Amino acid sequence: MERPDSVIELKNLSVGYRSGRKTLPVLGHLNVSLKKGEMVCLVGKNGIGKSTLLRSIAGIQTMLSGQILINGRDLSSYPVHELARTISLVLTDRIFAGNLKVEELISFGRHPYTNWLGNLTSSDQQKIQWALDISGTGEIREKSIHELSDGQFQKVLIARALAQDGDIIILDEPTAHLDLPNKISILKLLKDLCDQTGKSILMATHELEYAFQMADRIWMAMTETELMSGCPEDLILNGSFQKLIDHDAIRFNIRNGRFSVNHEKKWFCNLEGDPAAVFWTANALHRLRWEVTTDESGVKIQTLDKKGHYLWKMNFYGKETACKSMEEVVNVLKEHMSS
Questions:
Q1: What is the pLDDT of residue 136?
Q2: Residue among 90, 41, 45, 59 nearest 211 (CA)
């Protein structure tokens, strides 16, 4: 029997909690899918129910109504061991691992494949080694779990999921405790896994900028009853993304995909010159509540690249000033602002 194109399909799904005879729905009327080899990022405001949805899809939390199909089969039809061979799950919860070493914890990913004694075969060992190598955890394989930083521990959990070798990997905020280089490294790793192995990734994340750069599709939880699904660029161009982040303190530039603090602008200037210096000069201007305008202004700034050394020519209503650093530019602007 040919496997369906969609590895996860939600049909009129409602997820939430039960308390006695009462149900407490969190997200409802969900009709979206994840295709084979696709990386999908689930985004939405804090508390809207992203983690609840992931737990329900993974089968560790009972859904309220509707249907979840995994490879065309109803989720409820999967025996526990078969589901564990199909879906690898990485949650944000810090688990108690005692004095286990990194490699030992990663080896737990092979338990769905071992006998009742938990004996590892050579094939299991190969999968564990592959997970260590591809996740970059090989150099800490002998460390005890309690010695790891939060970022290292998260990488180990991802390595355990890789060792489990399910066709579907579900992750809840996998980069939450990582610094910027490691955030990007993990996201690139997950994207490469999709492209190179055909695995399907479903990941909840608040890393909106990187999600829209790397995801094939975005699931966007707009409200408790609206989960939009689409190509990242379509969701930006049709205005859906802007609705998600609608807040007085944030400004999103649709032309370059950049987020910025929405300062009230008090001064205006013209800016031109070397593109790199113009970009970062505009960044400083924005911070100081200046607006770069194409209209005629009494304040003009020109940036020049002199063989790797930048210069700024500033004209304040006919009075010229030259600066050799951005700090000097900022000081001149501040002087003008206080006058």
A1: 85
A2: 41
- E-only strand ranges, 241-295: 250-253, 258-261, 267-273, 290-292
Task: Give the pLDDT of residue 93.
Answer: 66
Q: What is the average pLDDT value for the chain, to the nearest integer? A: 88
33-35 and 6-19 beta bridge pairing: antiparallel
Angle formed at CA 106 by CA 146 and CA 113, multiple of 5 degrees: 145
Residues of the chain with CATH 3.30.160: 267-338
Residue ranges of alpha helices (H) inside 30-146 are 50-57, 80-86, 102-107, 122-135
Alpha-carbon distance 195 to 103, whole Å? 26
Residues 135-151 pLDDT 10s: 889 999 999 988 888 77
pTM for this predicted structure: 0.81
Residues 204-253 pLDDT 10s: 998 888 888 899 999 999 888 889 999 999 998 988 888 887 776 677 77
CB half-sphere exposure, 253, CA atoms < 13 A: 10
More confident position, 262 or 155? 155
- Structure-token pair, residue 63: 């859904």
Distance CA 64, CA 17 (A): 7
Q: Which residues make up the CATH 3.40.50.300 domain(s) of the chain? A: 36-46+80-246
**Residues 25-48 as b or e (16 or more Cβ within 10 Å = b):** bbbbbbebbbebbbbbbbbbeeeb
* 54's tokens: 């992931």
Buried b (16+ CB within 10 A) or exposed e, 305-335: eeeeebbbebbbeeeeeebeebeebbebbee
Q: Measured between alpha carbons, how far is 143 from 126 in angstroms, rounded to an integer?
A: 20
Mean pLDDT, rounded, for 276-303: 90
Q: Which CATH class is domain 36-46+80-246?
A: alpha beta
Question: Would you tell me the crossing angle of helices 275-287 and 326-338 to the nearest 10 degrees?
Answer: 40
Whether CATH 3.30.160 fits 267-338? yes
Please report how the helices 180-197 and 150-164 are oriented relative to each other, as an axis angle in degrees rounded to 10: 10
Question: 329 by DSSP, 3-state: which?
Answer: helix
Q: Letter for the amino acid at 102?
A: V
